[in-house]
Amino acid sequence: MKSRKVNFYVVAALSVLAPTAARADAGVPMLALLWPASWIAFIPVVIIEAWIARRIIGLTWKPALIRSSIANATSTLIGIPLTWGALLVVELVLSGGGRAFGIDTIPQKLFAAIVQAPWLIPYEEDLNWLVPTAAIVLLVPFFFASVFIERWAFDRKKQLEKSLVQLWSWKANLATYGIILFLLLCTLAYSIVKPKPSPNPRAYENTPYANATTSRSRK
Questions:
Q1: Nearest to residue 27, comparing CAs of 51, 9, 50?
Q2: Number of other residues whose CB lies within 10 A of the CB of residue 62
Q3: pLDDT exceeds 70 at position 135
Q4: What is the residue-wise DSSP string for the chain?
Q5: What is the pTM of this model?
Q6: How far is CA 61 from the centre of its chain?
Q7: Residue (of 194, 171, 17, 154) closest to 74 by Cα position
Q8: pLDDT band, very low/low/confident/very high, at 124 (cuts 50, 70, 90)
Q9: Which of 53, 34, 45, 18 has its CA nearest to residue 141?
Q10: According to the model, what pLDDT value does residue 25 have?
Q11: Rounded Cα distance, 117 and 138, in Å
Q12: Do the beta carbons of residue 121 and residue 131 sit within 8 Å?
């Protein structure tokens, strides 16, 4: 049991350093999905938050875009991984090192989707709804981390009015995270209503399992 926990901690540490190398059969480290997605959305987010900075603080486009780029790069590069890492530690403590408790009951489903959101247990048949649900759960701590990190990075030299920068950090992140939340909710709804593919009767053809089944039926 101890060796199993040690292996989980080692894999978790390696995932932080190289999240794309994580294997699905060892679970789903959500950082491997959300971090690349954050960089893909980087430019649209920068533009939206720069536009909000123009409206609230009165900046022109160039300084607004520069400040928004620095703020979002800081929160994406540092804030998201550190927040995910802290949440992973909480998960490991509460789940006894990444233990799978099953998802047969409602409390078990909530535990798997909320407490174990940073690193999902590989319940393969339920990952279609677990992944978007975990992403929605993680949006909450990511949002607050982004608000405070971007507030600092946006005006590190304290050249702007503090109250306006604070207002910008809240409204800018509410706007961008609100869009992301909407997209994730749509993904979750689709994963729930999407019919599951029926098993392929030929899936086991020419496999040892099929040969064993055939030999038993002949007997």
A1: 9
A2: 9
A3: yes
A4: -HHHHHHHHHHHHHHHH-GGG--TBTBEETHHHHHHHHHHTHHHHHHHHHHHHHHHH---HHHHHHHHHHHHHHIIIIIHHHHHHHHHHHHHHHTTTT----SSSHHHHHIIIIIT-SEE---GGGHHHHHHHHHHHHHHHHHHHHHHHHHHHHTTT--S-HHHHHHHHHHHHHHHHHHHHHHHHHHHHHHHHSPPPPPPTTTTTTSHHHHHHHHHHH-
A5: 0.78
A6: 31
A7: 154
A8: confident
A9: 34
A10: 57
A11: 7
A12: no
Q: Which two tokens stand for residue 105?
A: 């009951």
Which contacts of 105-111 are long-range, i.e. CB under 8 A and separated by 24 or more positions? none
Rounded Cα gap, residues 47 and 28, in angstroms: 31
**Amino acid identity of 44?**
P
Tokens, residue 100: 């799978």
| CB 31, CB 84: distance < 8 Å | yes
Model pLDDT for residues 63-114, shown as the tens digit of each residue: 999 999 999 999 999 999 999 999 999 999 999 888 899 999 999 999 999 9
Rounded Cα distance, 137 and 102, in Å:
19
